Amino acid sequence: MTGKLTNRRILVGVSGGIAAYKSAELVRRLIDLGAEVRVAMTKAAQEFITPLTLQALSGKPVSTDLLNTEAEAAMGHIELARWADLIVIAPASADIISRLAKGAGDDILTTICLARRCPLAIAPAMNQAMWHNSSTQENLATLQKHNIHQFGPDKGGQACGDIGFGRMSEPDALAQEVCKCFETRALEGKRVVITAGPTREAIDPVRYISNYSSGKMGYALAQAAAEAGAHTILISGPTALASPEHVKCINVVSAEEMQEACMNQVYESQSPCDIFIASAAVADYRPIEIAKQKIKKNDQDTMMLEMVKNPDIVATIASQANSPLVVGFAAETQNLIENAKSKLAKKQLDLVIANDVSKTDIGFNSDNNAVTIITKEAITEMAERSKSQVATDIIDYVATYLTKTN
Ligand code: PMT
C-alpha cells in the first residue's frame, strides 16, 4: 500500500511548548501516510515530551544535541538537513520563530534549518498575547518573506486559560498541510507518460540480460507528476516498487514490450499525451534468439551470444510529427555534459537529464540523485538530494518549459 507521503522524508522539529504532546500524534499521522519521519528537538521541547516517546513512534533516533559527537557521527545536522524533503516545526514557539527570523544557528534544530535545501514549515503555538505581539508578527513576516510555510495557528481555548489565536492546529490538519506542500498542480489537466526501471532481455527460459536500475527515479517522477495534477501513466520494467498513488502503472519486461506500451499510450490513446519522460534504463541490445530450452554448459571455456539492437524508444517517440514534449535521460560514466548534449541532438529531445552514474551514491539503485537539465538554450544543475526532491524539481522545470514553449 502506498500513501500520499510514500517515499517522502519529513523532519519534524519540536520546540518548547505545551502543544509538544501533539507532535507525537503528528509523527504517527505522517507515518500512516507513508512518510519516513525523523525528529529533532530543542532543549525546551524535552521538558514537555521525552525523546524516547518520539523515538518509539518514529522508529529512528531523535536528534537533541548539536554537540553530541556520537549522534553527529551517526547522522549529523548537515546530513539530516540534506536528508529531509520537508522540515515541519510543530509546535513552533515564539522563541524559535524569533531565532529562525534572525537566522540563528545555536542548537540542533536551527542549524538543520539553516543548512536545509528543502522547504520549511512552521506550526505556531503560543499564548494569544504572545501571538499578537508586534515582535512575533514582524518575525512571522520575515519568515514569510523567506518562503517559509505557516500552518495555523487556530483560535480557541488555550492551556493558560486565555481564548484567542495561538493554538497549534490539530495533527490531522497539519498532516494534510504537509501533503499539500508536495502538490504543486503545475501540470493540472496534462497527460504524462513516464518509463522507469530496467528491461530484461531473455536468453533462455531461466536467464536474462538486465542492469541495476531499481526504478526509484522513474517512480519518483511519476509520483511528482501526479502530485502536480497530471494524469500520469508509468510504464515500468521489473522492479520491487509499488505504484505511486493516482498513477496508472503498466508493467512490461523487455524493451520491445516497453516500446509497444509507450507507442500505445503516447500515440494510440484517445487523450493526447503532453509530456513523455524516458527514465528507464532500456537494454540497447537483446539476444538475437531466445533459446527454447535452458542452455546447457558444455566443454568450451567461452560462449558467444549474438545480440541485435533494440528499438530506441525515446528517439522513436521524438521523431514523430505530432510528438509530445520529450524528456530523455543520459546515464553517463564519463564526459557527462558533452555526451548528454549529443543525445539531446541525436535523439531530437526537448530536454535531457544528464545523470552521472559513475558514483554509487547517486544514479543506479541509490536513494539520492544529482542531475543536470540540458535544453538547447540552458544548462541547469540540480544538487544532490533525495530522488523524490530531484523528481519534484524536474517536474516543475518541465512544467515551466512546457508553458514557455506552448
Ligand atoms: O532506476 P534507478 O535505480 O532509480 O536509477 C535511475 C537511472 C540511473 C536509471 C535514471 O536516472 C537514468 O539515468 N535513466 C536513463 C538510463 C539509460 O539507459 O540511459 P542511456 O543514456 O543509455 O539512454 C538515453 C535515453 O534513451 C534514456 O532516456 C533511455 O530511457 C532512452 N532509451 C535508451 C535505449 C533504448 N533502447 N530506448 C530508449 O528509450
| Biggest beta sheet attributes | 8 strands, mixed
How much strand content do the residues show? 15-25%
Question: What's the total count of β strands?
Answer: 19
Low-confidence stretches: none
In this entry the ligands are: ligand PMT
**Helical content class:** 25-40%
Shape: elongated
Distance between the termini: 37 Å
Strand order of the largest sheet: 12-11-8-13-16-17-18-19
State the secondary-structure class.
alpha/beta
Radius of gyration: 25 Å
**So how many helices?**
14
The overall pLDDT, averaged over residues, is: 95
Characterize the structure shown:
The chain has 406 residues and is an alpha/beta fold. It has 14 helices and 19 strands. The chain has helices at 20-32, 51-58, 69-75, 77-83, 94-102, 108-115, 128-132, 134-145, 171-181, 216-227, 255-268, 313-319, 336-346, 387-405; strands at 9-14, 36-41, 86-92, 120-124, 149-150, 154-157, 163-167, 191-196, 201-204, 207-209, 231-236, 247-251, 275-278, 285-287, 307-309, 325-332, 351-356, 368-374, 379-386. The longest helix has 19 residues, at 387-405. The radius of gyration is 25 Å and the shape is elongated. The mean pLDDT is 95. Bound molecules: ligand PMT.
